[in-house]
Amino acid sequence: MPRFAVVATAAAALVVVTGTTATAAPEGTEFGIQSTSTGQFLSGDWDGDGDDTPGLYDYDSGTWFLKNSNEAGDPDLIFTFGNAPEEGWAIVGDWDGDGDDTIGLLRGGTWLLRNTNDTGVADLTFQYGDDDESGLPVTGDWDGDGDDTPGLVRDNVWFLRNANSTGNANTAFVYGDQNEVGIPVTGDWDGDGDDTQGLVRVGNWLLRNDTTTGPADIAFAYGDAFPRHWPVPGDWDDNDTDTPGVAEPHEDGTVRWFLRDENSSGPGTTVFDFPGAEQ
Ligand SMILES: [Ca+2]
Ligand SMILES: [Ca+2]
Ligand SMILES: [Ca+2]
Ligand SMILES: [Ca+2]
């Protein structure tokens, strides 16, 4: 596989981090701000066995690289979904509630979701957001019914929808500051079955267990400030709670993943390179 010098969406997220306004769905060409590469870090339960594992999306080629175990090694799945270059956001979730997380793209306000991790047309296509949508996409099982559905984060206002179809937000609330500099993350921090919101500000994880306005229920430091560390939470040990992870891209194209199994400060529980150095 090609090695990754990532930090692509990094550039897009950097727009948020610096407090300026993202003006549209990210252009692939905008991703080069941080580096010459165009990648995004993701995590999901690609094989439906219960644990979340890493994924990479290459915007230049529209190629997904998914790994089914939290250890060094080659990707288990390599396939294309998206254009070359792709101008939308890469997103993942269990759209059909069958237990596996699969791929998707958000272009403008159009969500293109596929229920299998392979090349093909979108199984679901719908509008959620504006044609020139400026919000950042998030996905999660907001209502705890088993399927992941869309959300948009416009500055510090979160708009969550409980169905994979065109329509209005079911839940809208403020979380974060005006001109929020944190990176939005979502997960089931307390293991009760629903996904909720969080922000990662300069390495500080601020997680809340209800999709409402209010203070963080859990706050801890993990990792360094973006873009050195890209936040990627997941259920690494299959105990039904989502916990922090960070991906650290290196100049040689390798990426080191630091996954922690507790929502607290401390060392990475599992650390490995994906992709690693070419042999
Ligand atoms: Ca898995
Ligand atoms: Ca699924
Ligand atoms: Ca749901
Ligand atoms: Ca929860």
Question: Which helices and strands, and how do they pair?
Answer:
Blueprint: H1 8-17, E1 39-44, E2 53-58, E3 63-66, E4 77-80, E5 89-93, E6 102-107, E7 110-113, E8 124-127, E9 136-140, E10 149-154, E11 157-160, E12 171-174, E13 183-187, E14 196-201, E15 204-207, E16 218-221, E17 230-231, E18 245-249, E19 255-259, E20 270-273
Antiparallel strand pairs: 1-2, 2-3, 3-4, 5-6, 6-7, 7-8, 9-10, 10-11, 11-12, 13-14, 14-15, 15-16, 17-18, 18-19, 19-20
This protein binds calcium ion (4 copies).
One calcium ion binds at residues 188-190, 192, 194, 196, 209.
Structural commentary:
This protein has one helix spanning 8-17; strands spanning 39-44, 53-58, 63-66, 77-80, 89-93, 102-107, 110-113, 124-127, 136-140, 149-154, 157-160, 171-174, 183-187, 196-201, 204-207, 218-221, 230-231, 245-249, 255-259, 270-273. The longest helix is centred in the N-terminal third of the chain and has 10 residues, at 8-17. A four-stranded antiparallel β-sheet has the order 1-2-3-4. A four-stranded antiparallel β-sheet has the order 5-6-7-8, with no helix packed on it. Strands 9-10-11-12 form a four-stranded antiparallel β-sheet, with no helix packed on it. Helix content is 4%, strand content 33%. The chain has a single domain (8-273), classed as Neuraminidase (6 Propeller), CATH 2.120.10. The chain is mainly β. It binds calcium ion (CA) (4 copies).
